[in-house]
Amino acid sequence: MKALISKWILALFGWKVTGLYKGEVKSCVVVVAPHTSNWDFVWGILARNVYRLNAKYLIKNTFFKPGIGWFFRMTGGIPVDRTKKSDLTERLKAMLSRRKGSQVVFTPEGTRKRVEKWKTGFYWVAVDSGLPIVMHSIDYKKKEFDTRAPFYPTGDWDVDRLEFEKFYADKTPGNPEGFNPKF
Predict the structure, then answer these.
(1) Which residue stretches of the chain are H helix?
(2) What's the confidence (pLDDT) of residue 23?
(3) In whole angstroms, what is the distance from residue 18 CA to residue 153 CA?
(4) Do the beta carbons of residue 175 and residue 37 sit within 8 Å?
């Protein structure tokens, strides 16, 4: 029911969700890009419902304030304090290996502003956990969410990053000046 309602809301605003995968992967690392607008969250939560993912997602800890923090917890938010070094990668690996059917969403740009280099934590969590990476994209020009079949990282970042760059190269973000498709 949640998937149907979410699909209807997206369609109402002209969005479509393509590239559905049939759940052949229960546990995985999910990568979503480009991430240049606050609207990415709104549309992304709806698309997550259409894809029928029960994924948790990383979000800045400042969103977990009294009055609104409950919403981010309820929708699967994992607070991240980007001002401090932490054991987040280790905690995520433990969570993914402990619970079958776990998925964590990463936005590897790490912010809605342009970055010169994407964060690679998602990659190493997948490699160390032995899990595939499922790439999802948001394309504002096409008003489309798309996904690629699960990608199994080799552990050679220099080779594998080319797969990510190829998938995201032609995607149009909400704020194009904020997107760098190079890893």
Answers:
(1) 2-12, 39-50, 69-74, 88-98, 121-129, 157-168
(2) 61
(3) 23
(4) yes
Q: How far apart are CA 108 and CA 179, in angstroms?
A: 11
- The residues spanned by each domain of the chain are 2-170
Query: Predicted confidence band at 162 (pLDDT cuts at 50, 70, 90)?
Result: very high
Give me 138's structure tokens. 């948001």
| Paired tokens of 130 | 């032995």
31-90 pLDDT, tens per residue? 999 988 889 999 999 999 998 888 899 888 888 989 889 999 999 999 888 777 778 778
Q: CA-CA distance, 62 to 80, in Å (whole number)?
A: 8
C-beta of residue 150 within 8 angstroms of C-beta of residue 31: no
